[in-house]
């Protein structure tokens, strides 16, 4: 079974902490031990895992990606959002987290982040857990 | 069981849409629901998921990687393809896609791309599906 | 069941070949066929798969990341290790390798590397195998 989380952004580039939503989806699937997959079915958004104690970390990630892959820097793709496709590719389309005792086995400082690079948009994130 | 797809490139850097080949491999494995793994057993090639409607998107991805990690820019590795190893690392060695109703649960605009950074070569891509 | 590997670095940035340790963990789990997950529960370290025949390849990867995301380049995060968080995000928090005949199905030149960007530290890497 695949759970679908709804995500809403209000800016062109926005990184949202979705750890609690993923935790809830995993709890609702009722799997004691296994592997959780977090999958973004979009092409200008991605998902990554990093520090969620200090929100400035994900701002640094966003700003560094914007410096490395600038908006509107003479790309071929005519929709004007080529930078967003490239950033999403660098960040990644999916993440995997182990599940133990019915919970995500995240490190102490780790959170799960949805990264939109061409918002504002309403998006979906798929959550699945394989038992084992 | 692991399915092996053969991929052939004709240039040094080439990004190939392998969505249909992965779909076929998944169909042949006959799993109704689960998780599909796409794994590249090479070190100068990778796999990523992004837009496959407009082919200029993957050209932008390739050209941006070439700008960030230029060919022949004074690397230590003496084989002359250090840039290809680094690009493959940034893009990723594997991807995961959920499977539902016996098919890949890709987003509307998503395709699966094999990215060679040191071709032309004959390569293999491994496909596996875990049921669940 | 989740196996935990201990990793120890002696420099700020250090990339360690952990292929043998992962192989051992997989062998001890006694799974004939399936998928192995290598997960780093830290936020300034990551894991990637690339060439392990010539150690200069991973040096090139480290030095290129250091050029793209320089240490101390005016980041917001006040702990002074923002570059390490960003590098870990680009490299990735986890990797997946297929398992066949009780062994990792790595390519001829592939090794698994733990990448610390804010050491020296004692770290853990989680290993899990799903059967199938």
Q: Would you kindly provide a written description of the structure presented here, covering whatever features stand out?
A:
The structure is a homotrimer of 132-residue chains. The first copy, chain A, is an alpha+beta fold and 132 residues long. Chain A has one domain: Sandwich (Jelly Rolls), CATH 2.60.120. Helices cover 26% and strands 37% of the residues of chain A. Chain A is built from three helices and eight strands, in the order E-E-H-E-E-H-H-E-E-E-E. In chain A, 54% of the residues are buried. The model of chain A has no long low-confidence stretch (mean pLDDT 97). At the A-B interface, helix 3 and strand 8 of A face strand 4, helix 2 and strand 5 of B.
In short:
Chain A has three helices and eight strands.
Q: Mind summarizing the main beta sheet of chain A?
A: 5 strands, antiparallel
Q: What are the segments of chain A in which pLDDT stays under 50 over at least 5 consecutive residues?
A: none
Large-scale geometry of chain A: elongated
* Level-1 CATH class name of chain A: Mainly Beta
Determine the CATH superfamily of chain A. Answer: YjbQ-like
Helical percent range of chain A?
25-40%
Span from first to last CA of chain A? 15 Å
Tally the structural domains of chain A. 1
Biggest β-sheet: strands ordered side by side in the sheet of chain A: 1-8-3-5-6
Rg of chain A, Å, rounded: 15 Å
Structural class category of chain A:
alpha+beta
Task: Report the mean per-residue pLDDT of chain A as an integer.
Answer: 97
What is the CATH architecture assignment of chain A? Sandwich
């Amino acid at each position: 079974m695949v759970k679908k989380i709804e995500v809403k952004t209000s800016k062109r580039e926005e990184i949202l902490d979705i750890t609690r939503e993923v935790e809830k989806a995993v709890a609702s699937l009722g799997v004691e031990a296994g592997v959780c997959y977090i999958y973004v079915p979009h092409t200008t958004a991605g998902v990554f895992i990093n520090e969620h104690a200090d929100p400035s970390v994900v701002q640094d990630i966003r700003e560094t990606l914007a410096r490395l892959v600038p908006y509107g820097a003479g790309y071929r793709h005519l929709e004007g959002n080529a930078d967003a496709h490239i950033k999403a590719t660098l960040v990644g389309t999916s993440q995997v987290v182990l599940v133990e005792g019915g919970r995500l086995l995240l490190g102490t400082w780790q959170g799960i982040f949805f990264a939109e690079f061409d918002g504002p948009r309403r998006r979906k994130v798929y959550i699945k857990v394989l038992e084992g």
